[in-house]
UniProtKB/TrEMBL annotation:
SUPFAM superfamilies: CV3147-like (SSF160991). It holds the Pfam family S-Me-THD_C. Residues 9-165 form the S-Me-THD N-terminal domain. It comes from Ornithinimicrobium faecis. This is DUF917 domain-containing protein. InterPro entries: S-Me-THD-like_C, S-Me-THD_C_sf, S-Me-THD_N, S-Me-THD_N_sf. Residues 168-348 form the S-Me-THD-like C-terminal domain.
């Protein structure tokens, strides 16, 4: 059943999505401000369950592409969001856009689509393309379903707007990433147009609802003097990997990504996190605790507030948790696209529970 997303629910959505974003997706506070601004100006957003999408609905993903570290100083705007969606609509031969969906349920990319939906008067689908956040455009489940990313439209704060049609989704990432770097390392994009019948099988359902639930669990736990980190672990069906103090962060923005490592000292051990926008590997000494595609998340030790990769600082007391990804990410084909080897890490993939990641060979739906 459809439900209404109002301005007072945006903070829980943003906080929960910052958790699910595994350190990436951009500053959730910025996205929340934009979404609240759009809802106040244009009214609340209707959120439609994935299974209620009409077969002929035209669904598009709205997202920010670029390095989250840059977005801290180069703030997105509703004008950029509107320009990207309007450019996409003019390039689509299939007809008018009827629904907006999140490319990823992470950080700013969970709330920018809310802003787009409110501004354009369109419903938001209770779903996303990943169930988490990944750094590259083609890294969504629709790619595994054979759905094209293009036409991809993009816009920046200077008024530049473009549309590209590409040979495949990897080329879409490569070409639009170059444009992103040239346009200041962050742009608004609209991508993966698909009919409702396709969306029902290619997307992760109930993502928006799940993000609100995670955010609300943190809020409620604080109010009742419970442990918010434990509440998040329970909601996600995950586990706590490590607790300690951040003692070193190495981070650089290169080729449109925020890449780096963080070292966390615990009572008896040291954890190293490797990230490329998102946390991808958690390793204590020679022991790999969890890797992409499962979710690795850093929360403030006591408050449970999610900490993004650009927000990691020396001296922070944190707890690192892990949770399972959508099972489709553990297929052999998916691991070639989002497993640790793709990102250049010479470690065997491990699931959130510490077990080796053995690729599943079933057909991907």
């Amino acid at each position: 059943m459809s439900w209404t997303l109002t301005a007072d629910a945006v903070r829980d959505l943003a906080r929960g999505a910052a958790v699910l974003g595994t350190g990436g997706g951009g500053d959730p506070h910025v996205g929340a401000l934009l979404a609240e601004q759009a809802i106040v100006a244009h009214g609340p957003v209707e959120v439609v369950p994935l299974n209620e999408l009409p077969d002929d609905a035209m669904v598009v993903m709205v997202a920010m592409m670029g390095a989250p570290t840059v977005m801290v100083e180069k703030l997105p705007s509703l004008e950029e969001v509107r320009a990207a969606v309007q450019a996409a609509e003019s390039a689509l031969p299939e007809g008018t856009i009827t629904h907006i969906v999140c490319a990823e349920i992470g950080g700013v990319n969970s709330t920018l689509p809310v802003a787009a939906a409110a501004t354009l008067g369109l419903p938001l689908v209770d779903a996303d393309g990943m169930g988490r956040a990944f750094p590259e455009l083609q890294m969504v489940l629709p790619t595994l379903s054979g759905i094209a990313a293009s036409p991809v439209s993009f816009a920046d704060e200077k008024g530049n707007v473009g549309v590209v049609h590409t040979a495949d989704n990897t080329w879409a990432e490569r070409i639009v990433r170059v444009a992103c770097v040239e346009m200041g390392c962050t742009i608004m994009i609209t991508t993966f147009p698909q009919r409702g019948a396709q969306a029902r099988t290619s997307l992760v359902k109930d993502s928006v609802t799940r993000a609100v639930q995670v955010g609300r669990a943190i809020t409620d736990s604080r109010a009742s003097n419970q442990d918010p980190v434990a509440s998040v672990v329970e909601v996600l069906g995950g586990r706590e990997l490590f607790a300690g103090k951040v003692v070193d962060v190495q981070r650089a923005t290169t080729a449109g990504f925020a890449r780096g490592r963080a070292r966390i000292d615990g009572e008896h051990d040291v954890l190293e996190l490797s990230f490329q926008n998102e946390h991808l590997v958690a390793q204590a000494g020679d022991t790999v605790l969890a890797t992409t595609p499962d979710l690795i998340m850093v929360l403030e030790h006591d408050s449970g507030e999610p900490i993004t990769t650009e927000g990691l600082r020396y001296g922070q007391r944190v707890r690192v948790i892990a949770a399972p990804s959508d099972p489709r990410w553990h297929s052999a084909e998916a691991l070639q696209m989002v497993g640790p080897a793709y990102f250049g890490y010479a470690v065997e993939g491990h699931r959130f529970d510490g077990s080796p990641d053995h690729p599943e060979q079933e057909d991907v739906a």
